[in-house]
Amino acid sequence: MSGRAVIRPVVDLLRRPDGPRDRQVLLGERMEVLEVLDGWVRICADKDGYEGWVPAAALGEDTEPTHWVSAPSTHAYAQADLKSPDRMAISFGSRVAVRAVTGRFAETAHGHIPVQHLMSVGERMADLVAVAALFLGTPYLWGGDSRWGIDCSGLVQAALLACGIDCPGDSGPQSRAVGALLPAGTPPVRGDLLFWMGHVALVADAGRILHANGKDMAVAYEPLEQAIDRIAAQGEGPVTAHRRPAIPA
């Protein structure tokens, strides 16, 4: 095995075989195989260098993707017909290789996907908060990275990657690597990132944040000052970092 790609909609990336989930990888994501052991594969994900274990059966041949899913989620249908059986539900950020386009559907190895749910590889979105808002109501899931379950750092990573900004998978590295670190007391603006110990949120506007959080158990807006007070009252301390990502031109 050398380079491989995910062939299931969502796969848990585990700390060890049969161990706890650290993150997830999505359909079409590419990776380097580091080790193979009794039906398990230790991989390094291309998108962020995250390492972990996945079932060997979840991986297939590495195919150069041409498009990525830009809708919150979509379906791959058996034919280029919205009334045909759906073969697979696919999350935002997944990658596919389009073979041909028939009417309003793109043919892939997984089925026919509505073209309006896809963007070409290399195309970017331009508003971090608008991307994150696609996940509103998505259930909170520790280590989650998909429309069916996501956590705070997974939400931030999804938004930044969609806008062409490299981003680690966990909030700790994000707090040290993403964008410019701003001095304490800098007024937050839309698209800024606020970090607490073990948590990250996007600033939606001067008075609100957007985050995947355990209070709502979902992706939701929350008044900024309320969140600061609530998180401090929970014993998780104050804001530890304020960073401002820059959208590539």
UniProtKB/TrEMBL annotation:
Gene3D superfamilies: endopeptidase domain like (from Nostoc punctiforme) (3.90.1720.10), SH3 Domains (2.30.30.40). SUPFAM superfamilies: Cysteine proteinases. Residues 122-246 form the NlpC/P60 domain. It comes from the Bacteria. InterPro entries: NLP_P60_dom, Papain-like_cys_pep_sf, PG_Endopeptidase_C40, SH3_16. Keywords: Hydrolase, Protease, Thiol protease. PANTHER family: NLP_P60 DOMAIN-CONTAINING PROTEIN-RELATED, PEPTIDOGLYCAN DL-ENDOPEPTIDASE CWLO. Belongs to the peptidase C40 family. This is C40 family peptidase. The lineage of its organism: Bacteria, Pseudomonadati, Pseudomonadota, Alphaproteobacteria, Rhodobacterales.
